[in-house]
Structure formats: structure tokens, C-alpha cells
Design goal:
Bound molecules: pyridoxal-5'-phosphate
Structural class: alpha/beta
Shape: globular
Strand order of the largest sheet: 7-6-5-4-3-2-1-8
Distance between the termini: 20 Å
Largest sheet: 8 strands, parallel
Strand content: 15-25%
Number of strands: 8
Radius of gyration: 17 Å
Length: about 220
């Protein structure tokens, strides 16, 4: 498994405007360092404890992306350094992120995770939930949060048609929310869609960020 060859191969298939997030969950710090030494700076993790350990042990100019479900009581562990939280799925979570951002004297960038997949197991907001959240009076008070776009995970399926529908759907939600709530905010511009198996489809549906794990680091082994 040649991680650098994989990285270069993936990069050559991405337009330069796309942010590649190397998803390093379950992988050793030595693998991350290899990719880092190749000039890559954006890495994604889905578990707070693992993310914090890697943050502490690795170079401080890495941009860490939280891509997994985030519990409110764990926000405090990542608030000082997290670069982008992809998985915001409630007003209560936003409230806690804002509070922790204030404590750390910073603004934390976030994406709303939209549920587009058919699987029950996948987290996220519906379009209606998101509209309700953005319309809440309290949302206006979150001065230490910047919502810079949306994240979605497609159904795990070999049927490209389903994935196409789901990515088309999140793009339509993205444009609707942008026009309704962020028309004067040029920072609402990120669409984090696309994993190893489906990122080429995501590119057709206006992905700005892709989150790739196994086609850079190899298959994951869970214990
Ligand atoms: C694990 C994970 C990825 C990367 O998955 P691959 O199929 O290995 O590319 C992307 N996004 C999220 C939210 C993940 O949990």
C-alpha cells in the first residue's frame, strides 16, 4: 500500500478548487505524517478522543475536520483547535459550540449535516429542520459560529442513480438555503459531499470538499 502514490493519484483526479480532506480515522499517526510531509494539511476524524490525541501528537498547522457525530459534552475538547465541524445537526449543539468558541476567543466554522441517505443510521437534518433552525431567534445570537455550508453522506450502494439523486437533492437544498438565508454572506459556499466510492459523482453535483479515506490510506480495519 503506497499512501503517497494513492494521494497523488487522487489529487490528479480533482480540480484544484476542491478541498481534499484526507480521512485518517483508525489510521496511525505515522500514516498522517507521511501525507503531511507531502504537503497535505487537511485531515478528517470522526471520534473526539482519537482526534484530540492526534492533534496533540502531530504538527500544529494541520487543519482538523470533525466529520463524525458530535456529542454536546465533547465539544469542549476540540473547540480550541478544530478547523471545521462538518456534522452540526441541532440547535442545542450549535449553542454549545458557540459557548465553547467564546471561551476560546475564536469563531468556529461549521457545516450543517443534511440527511440525504436512505439508511436510518445516518445522522442529519432535513431541509425543514434546517430552515426552522436558521429562522430561530436564537440563531442570530451565535456570533462565534460561522455556517459556511452543508455536508451530506449518500446511501452506501452500488446504484449510482441513487447517489446522483441524493447529491442533486443536497445541492438543491444548498442553493435554496443560500438564497434564502445567506444571500449577503459570501462565506456560505462549501458543499462537503463525496467519499472514496462516490466522489466522482459528487464532483458533478458541485462538491467543494471531498472526504476520502480508504482510497488514500487503504481499507480500514475495525477492532
Ligand atoms: C469514514 C468517512 C469518510 C471516508 O470514507 P471512505 O469511504 O474511506 O473514503 C467520509 N466521510 C465520513 C463522514 C466518514 O465517516
Amino acid at each position: 500500500m503506497d499512501i503517497i502514490a494513492n494521494l497523488q493519484h487522487v489529487k490528479s483526479s480533482l480540480p484544484s478548487r476542491i478541498t481534499l480532506i484526507a480521512v485518517s480515522k483508525t489510521k496511525p499517526e505515522s500514516d498522517i505524517l507521511l501525507v503531511y510531509k507531502n504537503g497535505h494539511r487537511d485531515f478528517g476524524e470522526n471520534k473526539v478522543q482519537e482526534l484530540v490525541r492526534k492533534y496533540e501528537n502531530l504538527p500544529k498547522d494541520i487543519n482538523w475536520h470533525m466529520i463524525g457525530h458530535l456529542q454536546k459534552n465533547k465539544v469542549k475538547y476540540i473547540a480550541s483547535f478544530i478547523s471545521l465541524i462538518h456534522s452540526v445537526d441541532s440547535l442545542d449543539l450549535l449553542k454549545v459550540i458557540n459557548k465553547e468558541a467564546i471561551k476560546n476567543n475564536r469563531v468556529i466554522n461549521c457545516l450543517f449535516q443534511i440527511k440525504i441517505a436512505r439508511e436510518e443510521s445516518k445522522y442529519g437534518l432535513t431541509k425543514e429542520d434546517t430552515i426552522q433552525l436558521l429562522s430561530a431567534d436564537e440563531f442570530e445570537t451565535f456570533k462565534h459560529i460561522k455556517i459556511i455550508g452543508l455536508m451530506g453522506m449518500a446511501t452506501f450502494t452500488a446504484d449510482d442513480k441513487i447517489i446522483e439523486q441524493e447529491y442533486a437533492h443536497i445541492y438543491s437544498i444548498f442553493t435554496e438555503l443560500r438564497d434564502k438565508f445567506f444571500i449577503d454572506k459570501d462565506y456560505f459556499k462549501e458543499l462537503s459531499i463525496g467519499m472514496s466510492g462516490d466522489y466522482k459523482i459528487a464532483l458533478k453535483y458541485h462538491a467543494t470538499m471531498v472526504r476520502l479515506g480508504s482510497n488514500i490510506f487503504g481499507e480500514r480495519i475495525y477492532n
